[in-house]
Design brief:
Structural class: alpha/beta
CATH topology: Rossmann fold
Helix content: 40-55%
Number of helices: 5
Largest sheet: 3 strands, parallel
CATH superfamily: HUPs
Distance between the termini: 29 Å
Order of helices and strands: EEEEEHEHEHHH
Oligomer: single chain
Number of strands: 7
Strand order of the largest sheet: 1-6-7
Length: 145
């Protein structure tokens, strides 16, 4: 089984500052961390690998510094890490980023699983995913709790 996990680095929320004039996030001096939901997806992928065998590939799009997050993912059990890094990607919006990541996933294929990570738009699916994960690892009885 081959599982692909896309991760994103986000500002560490314990150090977030907002520019009072523009309302924009001030990123200078704020360390980047792996999105917590992406970290959960990686953990699930590694658990699937341990239970059923296979490999886990992690990928992210970002500057060269994003390689640090990929190293962390490999330390947590990923077998392969891919950094999508090009000056052409600078300033990419959500649509462009999604397109680049989708093409990378196609290039890495075949894969069996692509865990769904939570985003602000998908928070309402959280309970559903928790139940599915509980059913996978503990059986249906725990999934309904």
């Amino acid at each position: 089984m081959h599982t692909i996990v896309a991760i994103k680095q986000v500002p560490d929320i314990t150090n977030v500052r907002i520019d009072p004039e523009t309302g924009a996030l001030i990123r200078e001096g704020v360390p980047a961390v792996i999105n917590p939901y992406d970290r959960h997806a990686l953990e699930m992928a590694v658990r699937l690998k341990e239970r059923f065998g296979g490999t886990v590939t992690v990928l992210t799009m970002g500057p060269p510094k994003a390689a640090e997050a990929l190293v962390e993912c490999v330390e947590q059990g990923a077998d392969r890490a891919i950094l999508l890094c090009d000056r052409k990607f600078g300033g990419a919006d959500t649509l462009a980023t999604s397109y680049v990541i989708a093409r990378a996933i196609e290039a890495v294929s075949p894969h069996d699983r692509l865990p769904r990570q939570h985003t602000a738009r998908h928070w309402h699916l959280r309970r559903f995913h928790e139940r599915r994960c509980a059913a996978l690892f503990h059986g249906p009885r725990d999934a309904e709790a």
